[in-house]
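quick one before i forget lol
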Amino acid sequence: MNLLRRFVVIAATVCSLTAPVAFAASTVKTPNFEKVKLANGATLLLMERHDVPLIAFTAVVRGGALTDPPDRLGTASLLAGLLEKGAGNRDANTFAETVASVGGQIQTGTSTESISVGGSFLARDQKLMVELLADVLQRPRLAEEQFETLRGRSIEFIRAAKDSDRSTLTPIYGAASLFGAHPYGRSVGGSEASLAAIKHADVRQYYADNFGADRVIIAVAGDFKTAQLKSLLSRAFSNWHKAGQPLPSVPKQTEVTARRVLLVDAPDAVQSYFWCGDVSVAKNDPRRASLDIVNTLFGGRFTSMLNTELRIRSGLSYGANSRFDRMAEGGSWELGSFTRTEKTIEAIDLAFATLDKLHAGSIDDGQLESAKSYVLGQYPLGLETASQWAYQLATLEFYGLDRSYIDDYGNKLAAVTLADAKHVIDEVIPTSQQVVLVVIGKADAIRDDLRKYGPLTEVKLSDPEFRVQP
């Protein structure tokens, strides 16, 4: 489980928009599936597919970092890690050996809004799969020895990132600076200080408060008979109690009205890692297709405007990208890159100039069609395997979306016009004056120059917290 969110730079060549690509994307349809709501609130989603003798599942428990105690950030992440470390009658070693002995897989993860358990088993082992999943969700061991080991390892991962993988930290500092005390600003994996403060009893209490049938979605896709697997899952989960506490409400985020700067001092740095972001739209925003097209053109592929300027033409960076992080009640738009310390201001200036160029109307018909071709070509690749479909079903249910979110996407992409793109640029993408800028680098070398971008707050990379006090 990766405790630190990573930016992903997708390297791909641009193909022309052709009828076969558009046809393939527009004909992606969600296969039939059955939805079952148990009396205790648990939701089951069953998609029967017989292409390979495999069954995959994604179980999602609503909550995640949103339900972390404010002074114990990372509790949900530690709990998720412990779910794999023994459940039911099996201790950690026996559990792992049982899964491996049949060629199965079970992984857990945490996000801002949920804890997830995913995996796959051969079709012949579906009874064991259900037994293990039921144990993981309803009867985790949560052993104290495993807790101590996992907490120590999680702290070391953060320290290692501060030493050698600082690009993974800019989104964490960015979210903290952008959202402040809002739950979306929480570090999913916690911090050195918050993790050290978590006790074994805190994890057990978190489980009691936040795990229950009313919080869970279980999506299964693969080689099974629906009636048989529905019976197995219903028996396994029908007696599960509800979570001990209600889900907290998520308040509206405060939009950025003027640019401000967070400088994270890394005295030994020879490179500066920079990030900028703004509050953005939710997962269910109806402009999804236009937003994806625009972000692809600006920073979502290797030949994007941003990467072309910062890497290909200027050589200031090995990579630059942008992305949306859409959640249930909003989210963020983010830009990230890095450069040599002495080139920090030049690179940031160029990134901001490129963003302003986007707002000035730099997209033309040829670029629009190129982006359509790229996104239409990539889209079906995420809707092929049983694991992908289980994940997609869980996602639809989690965010209250219907199958048209998948089935109509290709046609909506193909229908995006230049006017549509211009509207979302104006309405959703920030200008260079409406962002929070975060820079991890050698403060003595760049501090004074960074002040030109706006009011500056400075923290030390060695500080054991990611929280930012303006």
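fyi The longest strand covers residues 330-340.
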